[in-house]
Amino acid sequence: MAVRTLFTGLLTLTSMVAIVLALPSLWVKERLVDREGFVATVSTAARDQQVKDYLADQVASAAVEQTGRQAVGLIVAPVARAYTNTSQFEADFADIASQQHAWLFDPPPSSGDTSVMELDITGMLNRVIANAGLDLTVTGPILVPLNQAGSGLEAGRYYQVGRQITAMAYGSLVVAVIAGAMALVIARRRGTVVVWLGIGLICSAVFAWAIGVFFADRAKQEVVAVEDAGRTVAEVIVDGAVDDLHRLALIVAVAGVGVVVAGVVTRVVVGRR
């Protein structure tokens, strides 16, 4: 009986540790490493007014630079600001987010400058020019830097890390499920196991919250924009991603409390019998 209790405890502890690792790693895998998840996470920034103003200014500046005519900028500027309130802007912003993902998570290029993330806004500019009724087409590419050389961020920086986190996410989830199920099967007091698994969920939520705080600080240090407005945009994107993780952590924490309560109730009911 002592061996059975010891084995149950080891399995429960294993499942708890795996649960703690599974939540943040699964979130990173689904919301950052996967391209579609990254685009969905980052694209929420398209609704932020600071982001809209920054890109509208970039489009207007690019129009002047590409045509060499100040008058074009005066025409394009108000149209660009109106364009940022359309669904087309959100679609174009999603394309920019996809470019960011490719720069961060695809294998690093064998040549060229890999120290500066540049986003191509050629499509945005041509769309705004068309909306302004101007008979112009810009071939581009028109590149906007999102960080500066020497910030520590390089193309393909998270390629290997992304693969490792994906393996960790799937592995920890499988271990958590199998170990938890085995612990419940062999346990003499299943209610106690349920309580500890619920505590594991709460711990995973706390850990994920802390990871979000660390990620926000680290990402803001690495994504240093060339100018103040660009820095603000980068921070909006980072904060949006961290808010998404923190919302998930809160949901998991509440679920963990529910599991703990269920385990306690089970113990009480079984004990009375």
TrEMBL record:
Its protein name is Uncharacterized protein
Keywords carried by this UniProt record: Membrane, Transmembrane, Transmembrane helix
Membrane-crossing residue ranges in chain numbering: 167-187, 194-216, 248-270
